[in-house]
């Protein structure tokens, strides 16, 4: 399978996050939901790592240096994102919250140009502009 198949699968499961969480957020604090989700994810991923043999090659030395700091910052950014996502989901409509949350795609495009040296083509810029327009249209009353 290639990146596109994995990306579509990722999007499908991300959609399930919004639906399952919205249904479960009725009487539970949004921060608690983010914490429980993180624990479930950690346990699942540890199990996956154990069963697939990926943990056999792990050492904390792998997290030393610049790469380790960047990986840890990625985890921190993800955790902060979840806290805000579940808070928004608790009080907003899942379709609107998810549409605005997916503006992360536009942020990734801009940040990848600034920090990763990726080229911004007219097609990509137009696609990003359409994503912003789509999020605005979905989010408006």
Provide keyphrases for this structure.
2 domains, mainly alpha, 79% helix, 141 residues
Descriptive report:
With 141 residues, the protein is mostly helical. The chain has helices at residues 3-24, 30-52, 65-91, 94-101, 104-116, 122-139. The protein folds into 2 domains: 3-93, no CATH class; 102-141.
Multimerization status: single chain
* Radius of gyration from the alpha-carbon trace, in angstroms: 18 Å
Main beta sheet: none
**In total, how many domains does the architecture comprise?**
2
Strand content: under 5%
Mean pLDDT: 93
Q: Uncertain regions: pLDDT < 50 for 5+ in a row?
A: none
CA-to-CA gap between the ends?
Answer: 40 Å
Number of H/I helices: 6
Which H/E pattern describes the elements?
Answer: HHHHHH
Helical content stands at over 70%
- DSSP strand tally: 0
Gross morphology is globular
Structural classification: mainly alpha
């Amino acid at each position: 399978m290639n990146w596109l198949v994995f990306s579509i699968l990722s999007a499908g499961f991300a959609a399930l996050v919004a639906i399952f969480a919205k249904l479960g957020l009725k009487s539970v604090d949004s921060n608690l939901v983010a914490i429980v989700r993180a624990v479930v994810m950690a346990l699942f991923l540890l199990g996956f790592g154990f069963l697939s043999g990926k943990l056999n090659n792990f050492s904390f030395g792998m997290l030393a240096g610049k790469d380790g700091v960047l990986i840890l910052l990625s985890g921190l950014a993800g955790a902060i994102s979840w806290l805000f996502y579940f808070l928004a989901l608790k009080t907003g409509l899942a379709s609107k919250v998810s549409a605005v949350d997916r503006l992360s795609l536009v942020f990734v495009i801009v940040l990848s140009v600034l920090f990763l040296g990726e080229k911004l083509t007219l097609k990509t810029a137009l696609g990003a502009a359409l994503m912003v327009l789509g999020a605005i249209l979905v989010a408006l009353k």
